[in-house]
Specification:
Shape: globular
CATH superfamily of one domain: Ribosomal protein L13
Number of helices: 5
Strand order of the largest sheet: 5-2-1-6
Order of helices and strands: EHEHEEHHHEE
Largest sheet: 4 strands, parallel
CATH topology of one domain: Ribosomal Protein L13p, Chain: A
Oligomer: single chain
Radius of gyration: 17 Å
Distance between the termini: 33 Å
CATH architecture of one domain: Alpha-Beta Complex
CATH class of one domain: Alpha Beta
Strand content: 15-25%
Number of strands: 6
Structural class: alpha/beta
Length: 142
C-alpha cells in the first residue's frame, strides 16, 4: 500500500470565518493556526502547504483569561542599544487588537517558508464586517 503524497498544485483552498467575540484569544488563534496549516484535512502533509484562508472578525472582543491583561507584556526591540520596548496587553488590546491576535497565531505556526505563506492567508478585522464576501467564506464553529 502506497502513502498518499499531496502535490502543491493539487491543494484546494477554502475560506473560513472565525468569530473571536467573547472567546479566549489563544483558543481562536489555535483554531486559526490549524486551519492555516491544513491540519483539519485528510490530505495533510507537513512538507506541503495545504492550508486554507482564514478571516478572523471581532478581534477587539476577544478576551484574555486570568490576570493576563495586567501581567502579560509584548516585547519588541528597536535595534538600538537599550531600546527594548514593553507594552502591556491591556494597552495592546485597546489600541491594536489585531496585532495581539496576529502575534498569537504567528507563535503557533512554524518559522519557515510554509509558515510565512500561511500568515499571508490570514486576514484580521476589529469589527464584525469584512471585505471578503465575494469569496463566500464558511463559518468555522467547531
Amino acid at each position: 500500500m502506497s502513502t498518499y503524497m499531496p502535490k502543491a498544485g493539487e491543494v484546494e483552498r477554502k475560506w473560513y470565518v472565525l468569530d473571536a467575540a467573547g472567546k479566549p484569544l489563544g483558543r481562536v488563534a489555535a483554531q486559526a493556526a490549524m486551519l492555516l496549516r491544513g491540519k483539519h484535512k485528510v490530505t495533510y502533509a507537513p512538507h506541503v502547504d495545504c492550508g486554507d484562508h482564514v478571516i478572523i472578525i471581532n478581534c477587539k472582543d476577544a478576551v484574555l483569561t486570568g490576570k493576563k491583561l495586567d501581567k502579560k507584556f509584548y516585547y519588541h526591540h528597536t535595534g538600538y542599544i537599550g531600546h527594548l520596548k514593553a507594552v502591556r496587553y491591556d494597552t495592546l488590546m485597546d489600541q491594536k487588537p489585531c496585532k495581539a491576535m496576529e502575534l498569537a497565531v504567528k507563535g503557533m505556526i512554524p518559522n519557515n517558508t510554509i509558515g510565512r505563506a500561511a500568515m499571508g492567508r490570514l486576514r484580521l478585522f476589529e469589527g464584525a464586517e469584512h471585505k471578503h464576501a465575494a469569496q463566500k467564506p464558511q463559518v468555522w464553529d467547531r
